[in-house]
Design a protein that fits this description.
6-stranded parallel sheet, about 300 residues, 3-stranded mixed sheet, TIM Barrel, disordered N terminus, disordered C terminus, single chain, alpha/beta
C-alpha cells in the first residue's frame, strides 16, 4: 500500500467523530409556570412526568420536565443553593433520578439578578457554585431569567456569559436558555454568549391574542434558529380553558381550534406546555397536549 494512502487512512481513523451540538433538536416538554405558578411540588411534578410517559407525549419528543420559578429555598451555610424542603422534601436530585429512570430530562430555573422574578434566590455572583450544584443534581437544562438586573444589553451579555462558562466547567452538559426582555434583542447575541435558546417575545398567557403576539414577534426571526440555537416563544398554554394558574398569569382560555393551532405552529421556536396533564378530565375531555409546553423547531414539519 502506498505510504501516502496509508498515512491518509491513519489520519482518518484518528479523527474524532464530530459531536452534535447541545439542543441539536428542539427541547420540548412540560413546564410548571402557567399552571402552578410558585405553588409547585415534587409530587405534582412526578405525576406530570408519569403522564408524559403514559400519554405517549414522551415518545413524540416531549421529554423534559421544566421547573420554573418558586422551587428555591435559599442557601445553606456554605452558600449552596437549596430547594424549598416543603415543596421538594426528597430534593432535586431525587426528582432528576426519577425522571432519568423514565427516559425524561429535568430543566430548572434561575436568574441573572440577585432575586428571581418571583422574589426567590437567584444566581448572580454564584454562577460557578450554582452550576456545579445543578450538575450534581443531574439537571439537563437551565432557564436563566433576567429580572432585577440592569436593562442594557452589554451587562446582560456579561451575566449570561458568566453562567454559560460556569455550565461548561460544571462537568455536565446542560442546555442553556437565555430568557431576557425583548428590547435586549437576545436573538442577536444569545449564541455568542453560550446560549442554545433565546426569548423572542413576551410571557405567554392562556389567551389567543397573546399567542398571536408571540407569532408576530417571531415572524422575521427564522434565520436566527437552527440546530444548537432556537428562537424561544415562551410556553404554550394548551388545554387550560381559562382554568388553573395564578391570578396574574391565567387568561381567558382558547377554543379547541386555537389550542390545536398552537400545537401546530409552523415556526422555528422551542415549546414548553403548561397544564394539568395528570388530570385532563378536570379541564375538558379533548386536550391537544399536556397544557404548558415548550417546543423548539427549525423546519416546518419538526416538532
Amino acid at each position: 500500500m502506498p505510504a501516502i494512502l496509508l498515512g491518509l487512512l491513519i489520519l482518518c481513523a484518528a479523527a474524532p467523530a464530530q459531536q452534535a451540538p447541545l439542543a441539536s433538536t428542539p427541547p420540548m416538554g412540560w413546564m410548571t409556570w402557567n399552571y402552578f405558578g410558585v405553588d409547585l411540588n415534587e409530587r405534582d411534578l412526578r405525576e406530570m412526568a408519569d403522564a408524559l410517559v403514559r400519554s405517549k407525549m414522551a415518545e413524540a419528543g416531549y421529554t423534559y420536565i421544566f421547573i420554573d420559578d418558586g422551587w428555591q429555598g435559599g442557601r445553606d451555610n456554605r452558600n449552596n443553593i437549596i430547594a424549598d424542603p416543603r415543596k421538594f422534601p426528597s430534593g432535586i436530585k431525587a426528582l432528576a433520578d426519577y425522571l432519568h429512570a423514565q427516559g425524561l430530562k429535568l430543566g430548572i430555573y434561575s436568574d441573572a439578578g440577585q432575586l428571581s422574578c418571583a422574589g426567590y434566590t437567584a444566581s448572580y455572583g454564584f454562577e460557578a457554585q450554582d452550576a456545579k450544584t445543578f450538575a450534581a443534581w443531574g439537571v439537563d437544562y437551565l432557564k436563566y431569567d433576567y429580572c432585577a438586573a440592569p436593562q442594557d444589553a452589554d451587562t446582560a451579555k456579561l451575566r449570561y456569559r458568566a453562567m454559560a462558562d460556569a455550565l461548561l466547567k460544571s462537568g455536565r452538559k446542560i442546555v442553556f436558555g437565555v430568557c431576557c426582555q425583548v428590547h435586549l434583542e437576545p436573538w442577536k447575541w444569545g449564541a455568542a454568549v453560550g446560549g442554545q435558546l433565546w426569548r423572542i417575545g413576551p410571557d405567554s398567557r392562556d389567551k389567543w391574542a397573546n399567542m398571536l403576539m408571540n407569532i408576530n414577534y417571531n415572524a422575521d426571526l427564522h434565520d436566527y434558529a437552527g440546530p444548537g440555537g432556537w428562537n424561544d416563544m415562551c410556553m404554550l398554554s394548551v388545554g387550560m380553558y381559562g382554568k388553573g394558574g395564578t391570578s396574574w398569569i391565567k387568561g381567558t382560555g382558547c377554543t379547541e381550534m386555537e389550542y390545536q393551532t398552537q400545537m401546530n405552529r409552523l415556526l422555528r421556536y422551542p415549546e414548553h406546555e403548561c397544564g394539568d396533564q395528570a388530570h385532563p378530565a378536570e379541564q375538558g375531555n379533548h386536550r391537544p397536549g399536556p397544557g404548558c409546553a415548550r417546543k423548539a423547531g427549525r423546519t416546518q414539519n419538526q416538532e
